[in-house]
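Please predict the structure of the following assembly.
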Amino acid sequence: MRFTSEQHLDDGVLERAFTLGEIPGILWTPGSASASAPAPLILLGHPGGLHKLYPRLVARARHSAAEGFATATIELPGSGDRPRSPAAEQARADLRRALEAGEPVDEEIVDRLVLPLVDKAAPEWQAALDALLALPEIGGPVGYSGGVIAIGVRLAVVEPRISAAVLFAGSFVPRALFEEARQVTIPLHVLLQWDDEGNDRQRALDLFDAFGSEEKTLNANMGGHTGVPQSAGDAAARFFTRHLS
Amino acid sequence: MRFTSEQHLDDGVLERAFTLGEIPGILWTPGSASASAPAPLILLGHPGGLHKLYPRLVARARHSAAEGFATATIELPGSGDRPRSPAAEQARADLRRALEAGEPVDEEIVDRLVLPLVDKAAPEWQAALDALLALPEIGGPVGYSGGVIAIGVRLAVVEPRISAAVLFAGSFVPRALFEEARQVTIPLHVLLQWDDEGNDRQRALDLFDAFGSEEKTLNANMGGHTGVPQSAGDAAARFFTRHLS
């Protein structure tokens, strides 16, 4: 991990851009974090495209920093400045065509789009976690928040250093991931936008049901994909405070 | 309304038993409530039987008092010391028989059990509200919390003085109430226990979907009817603080 720039935000949060091999990322640490008082860490998921998403990501990171958490994110494979995969681009185009035609989306398209992404992204987040936890100002425990839910499911299964996750039921989930969901045992807080235009509500409820975790909460609210109300964001933050502090 | 006893709890909350005609009830007011600073009011619903439920009710009332709310409850028709209705007792016995036999519960039994209860209880809660709001130490706004969800739905439709409600999707809902649910427009916070043995989960989700409110949140958690986690109780309390303060 190599830091490429740093700046102090006006609330004392230190924002550092980094690269991990070819992967760009951002780390935010609260003013209070130091080698003597390392901060717990939230891995901040997203749908891909750090530049475009920066305003939303930094807002969430500052909110978390106020609670004493460090926050880090990395770019997804095939998003932002990272090289495109022709197969993923084809799957994305097929998905867009189905959605625009108002057709049901084939399982096969979802599999082609999401499964290779999950297979590639999950080890990258794990490598980022290795590098981040080696920093003296970052401690545990670690939470994963939001982004492509299939990546969150995979990480919750394969990465024992993640001890709680906030998942956003707002993207396509391959059938194969349901089996993995049954293996998840960490506490989960699942956000669902009831009228999410890009999301199959019943499938989201089925996925929530499938999670093996003894402690899981579904927080469903009115509105579309980007309409998560402030109160739901606050509830997710409190979930992390309960489980990572 | 006639007060029949009063005691100060150790946290300064004033607990007063009252009767409203033949109906027994309890009012809790925070130590801070006075004619000059009247407290907002939460009507505390329950499944019937004030004596038996007292420990749970007083715990919720004290929690609300700490947030500055007065809380009041009245006995349900046919429960506690109130006269039984032979028709309701018959419906209750029929329901118990169906549940013990593991049979699906006939709509007809639910209708016989719940509809007359709602028709009788809702005007009683409205009469209680008249009397409570006439006390100088009680102001508005008013919330309704928990209890038989069908009574909450009816009150949310017919009682304009109720400005927010926490509903517990944990009891039978006659089909006829779905039409009323569509007329509800106040902010709602709906609790659902995912594995509630006495509750049809899909029907609870359908009811949540039916509510006409623009602002409604479903907070679903693992466990059975009585297993609502502390964090869900806290989230419901914050909902009232947002909407009644």
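Chain A has seven helices and nine strands. The two ends of chain A are 26 Å apart (CA to CA).
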